[in-house]
Structure formats: structure tokens, C-alpha cells
Amino acid sequence: MAVCETCGNDYDMSFEVHAQGAVHTFDSFQCAIQAMAPICEHCGARVIGHGVQVNRAWYCCAHCARQEGATEIVDRTGVYA
């Protein structure tokens, strides 16, 4: 068993995430997301999809990026319609 680094649960089905040279141990995807997902610079939501990055800032969507002044960001909504 291994201890989740987010909640401290000692769980027999924990898993490891290897990222950027570090190894993290979690007992659920919820804990992994809480520990590792970037936070949108505009609305504070966890970025668990692709999100958008402008310079060094992460946003959950193009709308939030534009609200912070990133005018070059374009939504891809309707591209495949």
C-alpha cells in the first residue's frame, strides 16, 4: 500500500504519476487533479482539459484568457460543424 500525497489515505489501489522528473502517489484521480492541475488565472477553475496557455499563465478556456487581455486566443467552437 502507498499513502496519497493529497489526502494521506493509505490505499491498496494507489497509483503513481510520473511528471517532470518527479513521482507522485495518489489514491484517486480527484486527488491527482487537486495536486497537479493548473488553476485558471481568471476564474480559478482547475484546468483538467487542454486549456490554453498565454506566456506563463494558464486558462481553462479562450474566454477566460480574453478576459485577461489575451486577444490573440481564438475559440475552436464550431470548427467541425
How would you describe the overall organization of this protein?
This protein has 81 residues and is of the alpha+beta class. The chain has 2 domains: 1-36, no CATH class; 37-81, no CATH class. Helices cover 17% and strands 25% of the residues. The chain contains 2 helices and 6 strands. The chain has helices spanning 29-36, 62-67; strands at residues 2-3, 10-11, 15-19, 22-26, 52-54, 57-59. Strands 1-2 form a two-stranded antiparallel ribbon. It has a two-stranded antiparallel ribbon with strand order 3-4. A two-stranded antiparallel sheet has the order 5-6. The longest helix has 8 residues, at 29-36.
List the helices and strands and how they pair.
Elements: E1 2-3, E2 10-11, E3 15-19, E4 22-26, H1 29-36, E5 52-54, E6 57-59, H2 62-67
Antiparallel strand pairs: 1-2, 3-4, 5-6
The number of distinct β-strands equals: 6
How many H/I helices?
A: 2
Shape: elongated
- Counting helices, strands and paired strands, the structural category is alpha+beta
Integer tally of domains: 2
- One letter per element, helices H and strands E, the order comes to EEEEHEEH
Q: What's the end-to-end separation, in Å?
A: 48 Å
Poorly predicted runs: none
- Beta percentage is 15-25%
What is the rounded Rg? 16 Å
Biggest sheet strand line-up: 1-2
Share in helix: 10-25%
Average pLDDT, to the nearest integer?
91
State the major sheet.
Answer: 2 strands, antiparallel
Can you give me a brief rundown of this structure?
The protein is of the alpha+beta class. It has two helices and six strands. It is elongated and about 50 Å long.
